[in-house]
Specification:
It holds the Pfam family DUF389. By secondary structure, this protein is α+β, with helices and mostly antiparallel strands. It contains 15 helices and 4 strands. The chain has 2 domains: 106 residues, Alpha-Beta Plaits, CATH 3.30.70.240; 228 residues, no CATH class. The N and C termini lie far apart (53 Å).
């Protein structure tokens, strides 16, 4: 069972309100908490140890409690273990004894095993912000991919896939759409655009300078888009989003390899630089398919995982943004399938 610690720093005058709120929900959420004074003499620190599945529900209640003041701070961090143990089996047995009503209450909470919305946002934001390091990662991974595709070396190509600098902005865009977050949306689009331009320019330059007298099989395989590629992109995208929401970064490596964004983009640039225009179009189509399917699968999976904004007006804005984005990605996917059907004929 994954554990989290929620630390709440609050003024001393709010001690009773915070303690009462935590005590009221303690039996439902199954957490332990305690308070201690801070060195400044004016603030208190409450620490709550709980199951990761309950984190978002408790955070939302705390945010609603403190919405009227700016004198608080809530910090969330992981805990390896706690003694005495939090016993989820006892809680499940009590829920079974209480019958269906307890089961319904559990369903209304965050009992789906994922990390909280705020943790998820922080994790995604780290891979979405445009920085010098991101640009360097794009250039280096593109160079690795160029060498791997030109030599037809699968191991080198997988190395470029694992670096996967374009995956983060796409996940950020899907999350921003789900939450209706305009700032994160534009930051994701900006970062993704810079990454695509850098990768494409570098690979096109390599194709122009070196040419492709004898294209490798690995390179040629990226010039064709099949319907199985769309299915693979949708499934891999959904799996990647679930992995992100569960907070299991090691599992994301396999998704990076399965959902290859970088190799088809590199192939498109190489083919274009070498004046192989039909092949460049096919590789560009594969890259577009992966981006479209990743974002569409991401929005759907985030919604299925119960990722929602907290306030009602943010929920309304997010609902509108999600519907618009889902419509756009669906139309683009339909157009893509139409192009593929025209190519096969």
């Amino acid at each position: 069972m994954a554990l989290r610690v929620i630390e709440i720093v609050t003024p001393r005058e709010d001690k009773e309100d915070v303690a009462k709120s935590l005590e009221e929900r303690q039996s439902d959420e199954g957490y332990v908490f305690w308070g201690s004074p801070l060195d400044d003499g004016e603030s208190l620190s409450f620490r709550v140890v709980l199951d990761v599945r309950e984190t978002e529900d408790v955070l939302d209640k705390m945010e609603n409690l403190f919405a009227w003041t700016d004198k608080y701070r809530i910090v969330v961090y992981p805990a390896e273990a706690t003694l005495p143990r939090l016993d989820p089996l006892t809680k499940e047995e009590e829920a079974e004894k209480n019958g269906d009503q307890a089961g319904e209450e559990e369903d209304n909470g965050n009992g789906n095993g994922r990390i909280s919305r705020e943790e998820l946002y922080a994790d995604v934001l780290d891979t979405t912000l445009l920085s010098r390091h991101y640009a360097m990662l794009v250039l280096f991974s593109s160079l690795v991919g160029i060498i791997g595709l030109m030599r037809g070396n699968v191991a080198i190509i997988i190395g470029a896939m694992v670096l996967a600098p374009l995956l983060g902005p796409n996940v950020g865009l899907a999350l921003a759409t789900t939450l209706g977050d305009r700032k994160l949306t534009w930051e994701s689009i900006k970062t993704l655009t810079v990454g695509v331009v850098l990768c494409f320019a570098l690979s096109a330059g390599a194709g122009l300078l070196l040419g492709l007298p004898d294209p490798s099989e690995e390179l040629m395989s990226r010039s064709v888009t099949e319907f199985s590629d769309i299915i693979l992109a949708m499934v891999s995208g959904a799996a990647g989003i679930i992995t992100v929401t569960l907070g299991v970064p090691t599992s994301l490596v396999g998704v990076m390899v399965a959902l290859s964004l970088l190799p088809p983009l590199i192939a498109c640039g190489l083919f274009l630089g070498a004046s192989m225009f039909p092949e460049a179009g096919g590789a560009g189509l594969l890259f577009a398919a992966n981006v479209i399917c990743l974002n569409l699968a991401g929005v759907v999976t985030f919604l299925a995982q119960g990722i929602r904004p907290l306030s009602w007006y943010e929920k309304e804005r997010a609902k509108k943004a999600t519907l618009q984005a889902a419509l756009i990605w669906t139309v683009l996917l339909a157009a893509l399938v139409g192009l593929m059907l025209l190519q096969t004929r």
